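Minutes, methods subgroup
Present: GH (chair), OT, SY

1. OT presented the first of two proteins processed in the latest run. Sequence and C-alpha cells recorded below as shown on screen.
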Amino acid sequence: MVETKFQQVAIIGLGLMGASIAAGIKQQALAANVVAWDADATSLDLGCDLGLIDKASDSIADATSEADLIILSVPVQAMAGVLSQITLNGQIITDVSSVKGFVIDTVKAVYGEIPANFVPGHPIAGSEKHGVIAANPDLFRRHRVILTPLKETSDQSTEKVTRLWTSLGAEVVLMTPEHHDDVLAQTSHLPHLLAYALVDTLSAGGDSLEVFEYAAGGFRDFSRIAASDPTMWSDIFSTNASPVVDILEKYVTELQHLKQLIEEGDSEALKAVFERAKAARDHFSKLQQTRHANGG
C-alpha cells in the first residue's frame, strides 16, 4: 500500500491541471483527504461525483485552513486574489503556473516576504482539453515538473513537493525562476502563440471554411494547441511578456529571411534551412525516445 504523504491536500482551481492532480493523488493514495475550491460550483460538484475530491469547499479560506499542502491551479492573473484569502499556518504551498517570476512577485506582494514553505512549480504536461471532465491521473507520468525553489524556501518543503510529483510519475528538475521563464517562452509560449495566430489568420479569410475543410494532418497537428484555454494563455503572455517578445522577434526575423529566399527563388538556401531544422528535430525526437525508454 502506498504510504500517505499528506493528511489533507487543498487544490485551488479544479480545471484540467487541478483535477488531474487530484485524480493522481487519489489513485496513488497520497493524501487522507483531498478538498478543493473553484469559482465554478458545477466543477466542484462534478469533482465530487467523479470521486476526484473528498470535499468541495465554499471558500478558499475554508479549503486551505486545515490543509498541510496547498496546490494553486488558477490563472496567474487571479493569483493575487486567491493568495489574499489564504492565511498561512505552516502549510506547504505550491503552484502549477507556466510563469514563475510573476507568481513569485505576487506572493511577495501579498505576504510581504517569500514564505519558507512556498515551492514554485510547473508541470510540463497538459492537453488542449480543459475542465474537470478531462481529468487524467496519468497526465504527469513520464513528463517533467520544474520546481524553482528560492533561497527562502526550506529544503524540507522542496523535498515533500518533489516526492508528490515523483509519486505521480513525473521527473522533477530544479532551475531558477528566470531560466524557467526564458526556456518556457521558447518551448511552450511561442508555439502556442503561433498556433493561435495561424488559426486566426486562416479563419479571417472569406474562404476559411473551405480552407479548413481541406486541411490535412500538418495543419491539425500544428493547430491542435490553439484549442487551449484562451484565458490561461492570454494571462501567460501578459505576465511573461519580455522573454516572449525576445524570442518572437528572433522568429519574425527568421520568417522575413525565409520570405526573402522564397521571393528570390533560392531553393538551395531554403533547403539548407530545412535540413538544419530537420536535423535538430530528429535529434530532439531521439532524446525523447531515449528518455522514455529509460523510464524518464
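2. SY then presented the second protein from the same run.
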Amino acid sequence: MRSIKSVYKVGHGPSSSHTVGPYRAAKIYKNKHKDADSYSVCLYGSLACTGEGHSTAKAIKSAIEDITIDIDREEKNLKHPNTMVFKAYKNGKVIDESTIYSIGGGSIRFENNDGDDFVEVYPQKNFTKMLEACKKDGISLPEFIYKSEGNEIKDFLKEIWHAMESEVERGISVEGVLPGGLSITRKAKLLYERRCYNESPDVTMNRMISAYAYACSEENADESLVVTAPTCGSCGVIPAVLYYMRHDKGFPEEEIIDALAVAGLIGNVIRTNASISGAECGCQAEIGSACSMAAGALACLHKLNLDQIEYAAEIAMEHHLGLTCDPVNGLVQIPCIERNAVAAMRAINAVDLSRFLYETRKISFDDVVDTMYKTGKDLSEKYRETAHGGLAALYGDNNK
C-alpha cells in the first residue's frame, strides 16, 4: 500500500477527479512530449458528462494552452469512467497517443501502468492486517504510521493541516454568490456568525462544524485551493471536525496531526481496496470515505482504542452505502456542499456509538469497504457523477 501522501493533495477545486487529476495528467503528458508543437485530448465518461460544470477543460488548458479538447459522451465499455486520450502532434502528424485515467482524489494512472504517485510503503493490504501489526507491537495507529513512513511524514501532514486551516478561515470570512449559474449564496459566514437565542452547547457545536464544512466546500465550488480529503468534493468533512477540535476545543496541534495521519491511513485503505471516485462508485466513495476518515481521526483524538477506531470508521462508511453522486448541472454545489456538513456531524455520531458498543460489532471495516465497492459497481451509471440522474435530472438543465 502506498504512502498516505497519495490521499492528501493541494489543488484547485471544484473536483479532484475532474480538475486536479486532468491538470496533473496534462502537465505530465506535456513534459513527456516537449518536442510536440500541438496537443489534443478527448474526454470520455464522467469527464465528458460533467466537464463544463467541473471545469475540466479549464484545468487542462491551464496546463497546456495550445490544446484541442473534444468530448465523447457515447463511448461505452470504458476501463474507467474518468478516461482521457491525449495525443501529441509534430508537423501535423501524431507522434504519441496515451490513455490516462483520473482515478480519484487527484491521482492519475496511465494505461498499463500502476500510477503516477508514490512508492509502496505498507506491506499490509487491509486495515485488519494493520491493526494486527499494531497489537503485536503494542503501538498505536499513529505510531504504526510513523514507523512505516518515517517521522518526516509529520512535516507533510503539518503542511496539509495548515492548508486545511486556511480553507476554513477563508471560507468563513467570504460572502457572495458561487459561480456556475445556480445562484447559490455562500452560507458559511452566516452559519459561523448567527447564534440562536439560548443556543445549547450541542447546537453550537453542530452550527460551528457545519460552518467549517460549508466554508471548505464553498471554497472548493469557487475553484479555490483546497485539500483532497480524500477528494475535492468531500474536502469539507475532515477539516470541519478537526478545526473545531483544535480551535473550539483546544486540542494541541500535535494530536491533530496524529488524527490526520489516522484519517489518511483509513482513506488509503479505501482507495487501495475500493475507490474514492464518485464516477466509479458514487458519492458513497467520496462523502462516505471522508466521513469514515473523520470518524477514525476523531476516535484517535479522543484516545479510543484500536477496535473503537475501527468501529467508528466502519459505522461511518456503512451508513453512507448506496449514496449517489448526482451533481446538479455538473456543479459541486447541490447537493455536495450540504452533504459535507451532514457527514461531518455524522462522524461525531459514529464515534459516540463506537465508544460504547465496539465490543458488540459484527462487521469489520474491511468488510464494509468491500461492500461499498461492490455497491458502487452495481449503481446505475446515471448515479455516478454524470449529472444524468437524481437531483441533477429533476432540478438541473437536463430537465428543462
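Chair's summary of item 2: Residues 336-357 form the longest helix (22 residues).
Next meeting: continue with the remaining queue.
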